[in-house]
């Protein structure tokens, strides 16, 4: 993803979001996605593994050093954290989404924002 | 919910581990997952190629899942979109592919070329451009190819 304009899948962006406040293991990432989406987005272990492997390969996420090196390679139990590049990409995506949300508000698509 | 959610090519090759370096060198493919049978046979490897997934397996004659060299060809053309098809063709050739049709400007508004990878799978490498409307493309379509 060195081309500066990576296309993040929803699962990838949600995973970056889950790690934006600090390191977390895979179970916590899955729980986070379930919670922030109100259960409408499910991140299963297969997608979690794939998404983390891809984000690690792209240099956006890294495994956090942890005492569980002897454990089997289960991405649900391992700890991950954002790299500097991962934080920058997440921030860019969030800014882009916030512009879309602003336009949606102007178009009257956000009922709660209108009545507030 | 039977709506289709994704389309993933699954390629069969003679030897998965011999084939993977091509996809990594040519297309920056990243291995995400591999499934290995107890006898050591790689059942499949899942790669990320750009935003797409690509599955690669060793051929299984018993299941009629055959590599192009066994079949004597392939009916499938895999189209890979990129910002710079000229460079991607150079990289593919460096990684062991053969040029089937050099990159050129096509009537449908893309720079487009075709290669055959070392396993015999055919790839079109093309720009993801939107230069023409469908009507433009109809008007520019050659009488024959």
Number of helices of chain A: 5
The main sheet of chain B comes to: 4 strands, mixed
Number of strands of chain A: 3
Provide the succession of SSEs of chain B: EHEEEHEHEEEH
Q: Major sheet of chain A, described briefly?
A: 3 strands, antiparallel
Share of residues in strands of chain A: 5-15%
Structural class of the secondary elements of chain A? mainly alpha
> Terminal Cα separation of chain B, in Å?
41 Å
Structural class of chain B: alpha/beta
Q: Rounded to an integer, what's the Rg of chain B over CA atoms? A: 17 Å
What overall form of chain B do the CA principal axes indicate?
Answer: globular
How does this model look, in words?
The complex is a heterodimer of chains A (116) and B (145). In chain A, helix 1 (10-19) packs across helix 2 (26-36). Chain A has 116 residues and is mainly alpha-helical. Chain A is globular and about 45 Å long. Chain A has helices at residues 10-19, 26-36, 45-57, 84-106, 111-115; strands at 24-25, 61-63, 79-82. A 3-stranded antiparallel β-sheet of chain A has the order 1-3-2. Chain A contains 5 helices and 3 strands; from the N terminus they run H-E-H-H-E-E-H-H. With 145 residues, chain B is an alpha/beta fold. Helix content of chain B is 23%, strand content 36%. Chain B contains 4 helices and 8 strands, in the order E-H-E-E-E-H-E-H-E-E-E-H. In chain B, the strands form 2 sheets. In chain B, strands 1-4-3-2 form a 4-stranded mixed β-sheet, with helices on one face. The longest helix of chain B has 12 residues, at 16-27. The mean pLDDT of chain B is 93. Classes of the chains: A mainly alpha (116), B alpha/beta (145).
């Amino acid at each position: 993803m060195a081309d500066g304009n990576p296309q993040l899948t929803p699962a990838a962006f949600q995973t970056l979001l889950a790690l934006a406040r600090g390191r977390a293991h895979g179970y916590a990432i899955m729980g986070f996605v379930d919670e922030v989406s109100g259960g409408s987005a499910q991140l299963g272990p297969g997608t979690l593994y794939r998404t983390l492997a891809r984000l690690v390969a792209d240099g956006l996420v890294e495994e956090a050093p942890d005492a569980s090196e002897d454990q089997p390679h289960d991405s649900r139990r391992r700890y991950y954290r954002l790299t500097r590049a991962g934080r920058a990409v997440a921030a860019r995506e969030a800014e882009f989404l916030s512009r879309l949300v602003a336009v949606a508000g102007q178009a009257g698509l956000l009922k709660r924002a209108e009545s507030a | 919910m039977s709506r289709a959610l994704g389309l993933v090519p699954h390629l069969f090759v003679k030897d998965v581990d011999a084939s993977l370096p091509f996809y990594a060198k040519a297309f920056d493919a990243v291995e995400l997952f591999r499934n290995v049978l107890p006898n050591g046979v790689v059942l499949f490897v899942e790669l990320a190629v750009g935003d797409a997934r690509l599955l690669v397996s060793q051929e299984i004659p018993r299941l009629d899942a055959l590599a192009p060299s066994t079949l004597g060809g392939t009916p499938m053309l895999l189209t890979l979109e990129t910002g710079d098809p000229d460079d991607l063709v150079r990289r593919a050739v460096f990684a062991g592919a053969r040029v089937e049709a050099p990159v050129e400007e096509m009537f449908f508004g893309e720079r487009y070329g075709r290669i055959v990878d070392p396993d015999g799978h055919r790839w079109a490498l093309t720009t993801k451009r939107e230069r023409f409307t469908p009507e433009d493309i109809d008007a520019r379509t050659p009488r024959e190819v």
